[in-house]
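Ligand: FE2/S2 (inorganic) cluster. Inputs:
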Amino acid sequence: MTSQEIIQKYDSSPENLLSILHDLQDANQNHYLTEKDLQTAAVYLRLPISFVQGVATFYTMFSLTPRGNYIIRVCESPPCHLLGSTTVAQELMKLLGIQFGETTGDKMFTLEMSSCLGVCGVAPAMMINDEVYGNLTPQRIREILEEKRRGA
Ligand code: FES
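Predicted complex:
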């Protein structure tokens, strides 16, 4: 589906900006918004491009740079923090060889921090794309990354 086709599912109303940006980003195989996406949305909604760029940079769920196939978001809100999100973050950085905000050289994984994922009962937690993983331990993290590398 082209950017135009995605956008035209919505009315040309500024209140649809976030939904449009979400759909455009989801449709991109590298999970990010291109400059052309932002311009297309701005023209369609008759908004200044600077406003659309501002929205896209304000929300952490949007990226303006290419990301990996698997976007790993580690919850850093207090309940997860208390139950070990620092250990989770350190293990992921060690296993992937990247810092938060970076993508592995093979373009497979991107590491990001997130606020509460809404699953505090299984803290510490992370999401990989749309899937939630809780009760994380270093051992479980290794298994999950191996599953993803095998394409599971
Ligand atoms: S605080 Fe981590 S999921 Fe809610």
